[in-house]
Predict the structure.
Amino acid sequence: MADLYSVLGVPKTADAAAIKRAYRKLAKELHPDKTKDNPKLSDRFKQVSSAYELLSDEKKRAAYDRGEIDEQGNPRGFGSGGFGGGAGGFRGTRPGSGPGAGQTGGGARSAPPDFDFGGDPSDLFAELFGRGRSAGAGGPGGGPGGYRAQPPRGTDIAYKLAIPFVDAALARPRRLLLANGKTIDLAIPKGVDDGQQLRLGGQGEAGPAGPGDAIVTLILQPDARFTREGFDIRADIAVPLSTAVLGGQQRVPTPEGEVNLNIAPGTSSGKVMRLKGKGWTKKDGTRGDLLARVMVDVPEDPGLADFLRARQAA
């Protein structure tokens, strides 16, 4: 195996942060999810993971730099078995704990200091690829005690749904046609706002770990009769001059439909009249008010203009 620093593409003077950055970059490029059809790149990923596992551990890195262990973490000069217990190897017993401990003669030789090989880069796998540990799962190369990619969920599907002003004000359900051809009646939340998003679980594309979700963005359409002000709704109503002067009833639009509004005699243009509970639906189910502004409709009648001038001059 090549020099571990060369495997990660960093100099021997690189600090821990530089080593971690190099590993992140290579792991993203070489992860088996992306390179499963390329055995050479898969082997390269294993080398990168092994190199990072050793160099990210301060003690192991120091031992490697001193030449005490090789690229696999095995002590140099003790045979091919290393700590695994193979031919010529040791089982990782600590100094003073094995047979013949403390002997300096021809008895059993004390085992060399063992090294903690628990530096499995799981934190980076979880961060980079969202993986979890599974019992008996393989490591980067598939061995016991490592990490295995979880099957992905299906892709989420984004929708935009136009909501008429009055339907949004009253929180009326709206029908939505999904990409799979299914039609649903979508409940519009009370107090809905323009651009609000709703997540429909399991209504996205199919995937090995289950379907994704549908993400619905609600687009509130304007209405020429109304404007929204918090939970209140404003509307301008044209009132004939005769009704404004003499009083009477005037039809007023509301989200539910038109209602009669009593106009008092002598009502001036610009006066705002409040209709309780005819506004926008709130989150608790109650409603704001409708604020009707009187706009006196003065007819274009030359005779009326002459009459008013005469009254003013008198």
User: Anything to note?
Assistant: Confidence is low (pLDDT under 50) at residues 78-120, 130-145.
